Amino acid sequence: MNQPVLFEERPTENGMRIGVATLNAPQTLNGLSLDMARMLDERLMAWAADPRVAIVVLQGAGDKAFCAGGDLHGLYRSMREAPAGKPWANRYAREFFEVEYRLDYRIHTYPKPVLCWGNGFVMGGGIGLMMGASHRVVSETVRLAMPEISIGLFPDVGGSWLLNRMPGNTGVFLALTGAQLNASDAFFTGLADFHVRQADWPRLLAQLETLPWAGSAGTIGGDDAPAFAPRSMNDGLLRQALLALEPAEGLAPGPLKQHSFQINNLCSGTDLEEIYENIAALADNDDPWLSKAARTMLAGSPGTARLAFTLLLRMRQRSLEDVFRAEYVAALQAAAHGDFAEGIRALLIDKDRRPRWNPATIEAADKQWVLKFFEEPWPEDQPHPLADLGAA
């Protein structure tokens, strides 16, 4: 049986090492399972403590995806087996979301440069892995999205933090529609930092092995230099290598940027019903990207729309740690009360693509209905499972 994550340490010319982690489940578009998240987290901790490792590279096996999401089949089984309406009774969901969110947070706060290769599909859980990396690189084939509206969850893995930091009201639009972004719009939304052609990726990896990385085995500064050079030196080396492979021709504006003025107007304010109606009116738009976005929203879970929108409002000024803690509660509640199981059933299990959402309308998924998704489900005397995020 193949290992779901492959790890290697590539030696460099000056004695340092490059830690490379490859998600190795191309048959599921490198969907992130609990075992994969555990393995990644453990190895990232080890590499962070290893003075010989200068940088870390995250990539996906195959050419189709870096990571197209999380382990929906495993979560579906856990929701079918757990007692209905009891979020804390679903042990698998409790562990999956805690391990996944801790891994994502670790990448956000990692003490060394992390290069993430965004090639092909990067969706849901893949966004969670990528968005915290210090050097986020996309190819011409990248397609990014947070499509949870179609499965009855919500844009988690820190999505409530990320979407709030996108230009204007574009984050609201993406949360409600799950619209896909190309490489150009990845830069527009702040999801990408560098552009490298898919064909140049092996060349980049080879070049990284030749650079004079700083660290305990490094040679920068001569024999009298301190054992550890500032991280900024390695950040700079990595940046220079990436810029050297940046295509000379620029990227044409993507559809999100092209329509950003209209989207900002449609998604302004705090009245979800009005915003929902504004987007719905695009269903017959002549532009296929706008039309598809609106139709996806209309076919998606009204409960997801309400929950995602409420999280964006509540988390607007909150820290990344607080966002992960709020999303953890909401994810457990969604696994017990929401449309999550039904969305997976319709998309991946029975594949009839005819989900029976409950509530069935945005009006029924009102401000009172959504409050249960913010109720902590564990015993009163127990701390939040993610209470220690951000602790010194």
From TrEMBL:
Residues 18-374 form the Enoyl-CoA hydratase/isomerase domain. InterPro entries: ClpP/crotonase-like_dom_sf, ECH_dom, HIBYL-CoA-H. Keywords: Hydrolase. The keyword Transmembrane helix does not apply. It is an enzyme of class 3 (hydrolase). Its EC number is 3.1.2.4. One of its GO terms (biological process) is L-valine catabolic process. One of its GO terms (molecular function) is 3-hydroxyisobutyryl-CoA hydrolase activity. It holds the Pfam family ECH_2. The keyword Membrane does not apply. It catalyses: 3-hydroxy-2-methylpropanoyl-CoA + H2O = 3-hydroxy-2-methylpropanoate + CoA + H(+). One of its GO terms (cellular component) is cytosol. This is 3-hydroxyisobutyryl-CoA hydrolase. It comes from Bordetella bronchialis.
